Known about the structure:
Blueprint: H1 4-17, H2 23-30, H3 34-40, H4 44-66, H5 68-72, H6 77-97, H7 105-109, H8 111-133, H9 143-163, H10 171-181
Helix pairs in contact: 1-2, 4-6, 4-8, 6-8, 6-9, 6-10, 8-9, 9-10
Amino acid sequence: MTSREQIMTAATRHLNEDPAASMARIAEAAGVSRATLHRHFSGRDDLMIALGHRAHDRWHQVLVSAGVAEAAASSDPGEVGRALDALLSGLIEVADEYGFGLTDHALAVHPELSRRAEELEEREIALYAAAQRTGLLRADLPVRWISNTVYGLLVAVRDSLRRGDVARRDVHRLVTQTFLRGAASPAPEDGRPSSGAHGGSASGGEGA
Length: 208
């Protein structure tokens, strides 16, 4: 018998390919009848909320595994840097696994899921603030802008993998280099912006 967890796993996989999939299509993807699917979930909204909580659970696990809380209270650049790298790695995995939820409006406005998202984001923001204090990230940028930038990169991860624009093995490098160095061409050694960099030099090198 197919379990609730197995159905949710199959539903997640299918929704990543077809975010607007109906319950009938999700049931087919999970290898169960619509009646069986409805025994576990009263409707599509019920299923989506359950998947949203599952994604938030994974997000929470990433923060714990990365040691975000401990690093946010640290003044050691090494500890903060390691936590930042681990956080980005974990978020990439979550974006890959639960990509459909990144831009699902219904999940974003659901009161309980919205509350959980705000709480988890605040933990991330505390780490970004620590990275600013220790010189790993630019201090002249609003910390919530940094958080929103990470979110945008995760959407880029989802879309790029879905379309086959990048190899999965390259995603971590692309995210961390884009996040830390930006997309501008590096400035030459004399400090003048390179001809290909519109608007000036790169935004600060490793500490950007």
